[in-house]
Amino acid sequence: MEGRPVPLVLSLSRCGDWAVVAGQLDADLTGAVGVDIEDESSTAFEGFDAELLTDGERRLTLNTPEHSRPRLRAQLWTRKEALLKALGTGLAREPNSIDVVADPRVRSMAPEPLGLPADLAVAVAWLAVPPLR
Questions:
Q1: I want to staple 127 with a disulfide (CB 3.0 to 4.6 A). Which of 2, 32, 87, 103 is the partner?
Q2: Taking CA 54 as the corner, what is the angle to CA 70 and CA 59, rounded to the nearest 5 degrees?
Q3: CB within 8 A of 18, min separation 6: which ones?
Q4: How far apart are CA 88 and CA 133, in angstroms?
Q5: Per residue in 65-97, pLDDT tens?
Q6: Residues of 33-67 as b/e, b for ≥16 C-beta within 10 angstroms?
Q7: With contact defined as beta carbons under 8 Å apart, do 122 and 108 qualify?
């Protein structure tokens, strides 16, 4: 492919001194990718659940042991941000309008195999066709 454009779709996110990049080769440039990384503490503020989570996500959080909730909130948030980036809307779309618990387009990734600290949450979303805007 020397001298020719590479059909590459990328997404970048950073948190403090850490960054993640997700990409895919896409010959037709018809796909989309989104990635997000967050520290668990970024979701530790009053009103996070009420403002940013769907009813189902709030129920899941309430049914999760207290000590595991910061991790769950960070995972939900990174999944939302990754998917909203891939959809092309970003935060112009209300985060509480999209439930990411079982959405097959987005997945959480364990930080340690990526060489990241355990208190970071990472998610990536892939879409096979361009989103409707």
A1: 32
A2: 60
A3: 37, 116, 117, 120
A4: 7
A5: 999 999 999 999 999 999 999 999 999 899 999
A6: bbbbbbbbebbeeeeebeebbbeebeebbeeeeee
A7: yes
Q: Say yes or no to pLDDT of 29 above 70.
A: no
Neighbour count for residue 71 (Cβ, 10 Å): 16
> Which residue from 48, 41, 12, 5 is spatially nearest to 26, judged by alpha carbons?
5
Token readout for 113 is 């195999």
- Looking up tokens 């503020």 gives 45
**pLDDT for residue 7:** 80
Q: Is residue 117 classed as helix, strand or coil in its secondary structure? A: coil
CB 114 within 8 A of CB 123: no
Nearest partner of 81 among 69, 92, 70, 91, judged by Cα: 91
CB atoms within 10 A of CB 68: 10
Domains and CATH numbers, the chain: 8-127 (3.90.470.20)
